[in-house]
Design goal:
The structure is a homotrimer. Chain A is of the alpha+beta class and about 170 residues long. Chain A has helices spanning about 10-15, 75-95, 120-135; strands spanning about 35-40, 40-45, 50, 60, 100-110, 145-150, 160-165. In chain A, helix 2 (about 75-95) packs across helix 3 (about 120-135). The radius of gyration of chain A is 16 Å and the shape is globular.
Chain lengths: ~170, ~170, ~170
Amino acid sequence: VGVTTRSGTSPESRLRELGIELPRAPLPLGDYVPGKVAGSLLFVSGAYPTCPDERGAGDVLRYRGQLGGDLTAEQGQAAARLVAINLLAMARAIVHDLDRVRSVIRLTGYVNAAPGFTDAPAVLDGASRLLVEVFGPDSGSHCRMALYQPGLPDDAPLTAELLLDLHRTDKR
Amino acid sequence: VGVTTRSGTSPESRLRELGIELPRAPLPLGDYVPGKVAGSLLFVSGAYPTCPDERGAGDVLRYRGQLGGDLTAEQGQAAARLVAINLLAMARAIVHDLDRVRSVIRLTGYVNAAPGFTDAPAVLDGASRLLVEVFGPDSGSHCRMALYQPGLPDDAPLTAELLLDLHRTDKR
Amino acid sequence: VGVTTRSGTSPESRLRELGIELPRAPLPLGDYVPGKVAGSLLFVSGAYPTCPDERGAGDVLRYRGQLGGDLTAEQGQAAARLVAINLLAMARAIVHDLDRVRSVIRLTGYVNAAPGFTDAPAVLDGASRLLVEVFGPDSGSHCRMALYQPGLPDDAPLTAELLLDLHRTDKR
């Protein structure tokens, strides 16, 4: 398809420029799929800050702990950036080529927060900035909802889901 | 419309084969509607594991209690299956015929969890499996987000919302 | 565009009739935008019950405290109404004219709840009623998800996000 952003680079080439090699998509944790397309919308399932387990078949958390307790906001941002990378890996697993993405629409993130921690927006900025780096300031900007969870599986620091808009290249 | 899944049966006939008679849709708990259509997308409001109250005009919870405390994961899955049935009843109340559904897109579920319970994915599988049984492995597969709530009305074990994609039979 | 609701008035003129002057849109709390359009869908980011700070450049919370503790359900409804007004201000910042809105699709609200408070639906009705007043009983009715948060930034009583469907006036 070969869409170009303002800076003249496509999402796939921006990933290469940024030195980001997308991992294989995280494995679903149950009876669902990494993403589903409706019209031009690509809905991506929830992701965690995991990496593929090199010694096994699953995924392992790269960051653990609550914000406002175990982790600093800076560590939370790094975890959020990894969540965004995993969401893009899941999106690519569905559409095979991120140059098919026209625009990032919506990011919803849920931060595992100790009582009193209320700076989920700062944590999620780690994910939002990665999306803007990859898709550019226009296509990459998105609307967002920042929420809190009193706990998450394996004490993961956050989870997030993503909505993308695709170029209308294929008829349905 | 008469769409057929791979196994040669439509969602409505699959419901009959499975012996599932959809109840009337749960009544809204406030000033909203069970679902709303935008283009080919049908957004369905949140549902609980309720049944119509045979002695009155409202709905009654069929399952009560927190996961990780009062209820086992197996009971949670049964509750989640009932939530999926209610979501389909709400969808049918809007479009009158589930054979108009082209694909299940997204399920978001929120589990009422005791501190330390983090297996919402296993609970929500009870809903996801029902959707795949009714719509088949391709149309029924969906993306998912599994989240936690420290409490829910009347100690309901979970709530979930659904997004469906409709066949494009009507112009707008 | 000049769409009319059943009562013969457009959303913008209904706002005037109701004596509601939309404030400037609340400022984003991080690296995201107030809303984003995909096809005919307008996704609006999370809003709080804030007003522009007359003494500064930011926004200030007009309501503070938990439901079921500090605030009555009636105060919560007033806060929810203000959240809806802010969501419309954000929507207008994106599409410039609320008469471009064809229909309200989905409202998701998260109530800051003291342990045991489970009447988020009553609180969110404050927002839902405002939307129906502005867009009329057909276009304004929407599907809804009512959820709970154990805390929110600056002890805000709730936050909510909105999905609108636009008239298909512009090609993409």
